[in-house]
From TrEMBL:
Signal peptide: none annotated. Keywords: GTPase activation. GO terms for biological process: endoplasmic reticulum to Golgi vesicle-mediated transport. It holds the Pfam family RabGAP-TBC. Transmembrane segments: none annotated. This is Rab-GAP TBC domain-containing protein. Residues 1-28 are annotated as: Disordered. It comes from Actinomortierella ambigua. GO terms for cellular component: endoplasmic reticulum membrane. Residues 64-250 form the Rab-GAP TBC domain. It comes from the Eukaryota. GO terms for molecular function: GTPase activator activity.
């Protein structure tokens, strides 16, 4: 009788384990099917130049899924397909910012230096490519001024697109998305950051009140905005995911994204000592384990609710559009 009970108990345990494994496999299979469906949608959108579908997919789920798709989607979004670059030029005159570019490039691709499988020659090659991409943009557009952080943007572009496509993309992004960063000073960008306070006033007055009590200005988010988080996020897949979203959005979307990041940490924020230095230091550090998809979704919702013109009118915070 005891033997029969033991067998019965073992069979029940085996069935329980099998049932548990089956339940675990079902979500995984569902995820795989959803991913395959997304890839088909992306391929179809890229094939037909369907930017609207790319924009929709950039807001949800895994964005553009992988770098193979990004290599086709990003140039489409930036209108930098082959043959649309300006004619090659010869200009031996150095850019006024070349020395700062050189210093920043030397600090780039540090993750390759710590990878035992990557030779130093590979890292140097990437650094040379990075320097060439940045200098190319600056020489083609002498009125643009280099800023520390643009090298982080170009590093992401080279990693995903390769040097040739990255050169085209960097030029377009400098002129469209980062134009205000590449003026003689960052004052226009600091003005844009002030819109965050308006978002807090309309969406989360408690966050605004805490920041005001601690005399904390929104400059803690400067790096997030001028590098599209590529300087602050350690996980490159997350960086690329953010780029998927921003490339499909208004140039001011990083400001809304930054506001969403802060509001996602409101409980942690309120636990901080209400002191300027403490709060600024806390907010400057981009949260490591944040729910990126939730933040992207919230940023998109904020933009839909308070588009730039509406936000400026309701908060009486005006940007100079010159």
């Amino acid at each position: 009788m005891t033997r029969a009970r033991e067998l019965q108990s073992r069979n029940a345990a085996a069935k329980s384990i099998a049932s548990h494994n089956l339940r675990n496999r079902r979500p995984q299979r569902k995820d795989i099917l959803e991913k395959q469906k997304r890839i088909r949608q992306l391929d179809e959108a890229i094939l037909h130049g369907d930017v609207a579908t790319l924009q929709r997919l950039s807001v949800t789920g895994a964005g553009f899924v992988n770098d193979g798709i990004r290599r086709r989607a990003w140039p489409l979004l930036l209108r930098t397909i082959k043959g649309r670059h300006k004619e090659e030029f010869e200009d031996d005159k150095p850019s006024k910012d070349e020395e700062q570019v050189r210093l920043d490039v030397l600090r780039s691709f540090t993750h390759l230096a710590s990878d035992p499988n990557v030779r130093e020659a590979v890292r140097r090659k990437r650094q040379d490519e990075l320097s060439e991409v940045i200098i190319d943009v600056l020489k083609r557009h002498p009125r643009l001024s280099y800023y520390q952080g643009f090298h982080d943007v170009c590093t992401c572009l080279i990693t995903v697109l390769g040097k040739e496509s990255a050169t085209l993309a960097a030029e377009c992004m400098a002129l469209v998305f980062f134009r205000d960063c590449m003026l003689d000073n960052l004052e226009p960008v600091l003005d844009q950051l002030s819109l965050m306070m308006g978002i807090f006033r309309l969406e989360d007055p408690e966050v605004l009140e805490f920041l005001n009590r601690s005399d904390t200005l929104p400059f803690f988010a400067l790096s997030w905005v001028i590098t599209w988080c590529s300087h602050d996020l350690q996980d490159f897949e997350k960086v690329a995911r953010v780029y998927d979203f921003f490339l499909c959005s208004n140039p001011l979307m990083p400001v809304y994204f930054a506001a969403a990041v802060v509001m996602s940490r409101r409980e942690e924020l309120f636990e901080q000592e209400c002191d300027n230095a403490m709060v600024h230091t806390f907010l400057t550090k981009f949260p490591k384990n944040c729910d990126l998809e939730l933040i992207i979704s919230h940023a998109h919702q904020l933009f839909e609710t308070y588009p730039p013109e509406t936000l400026q009118k309701r908060t009486q915070t005006w940007l100079d559009d010159k």
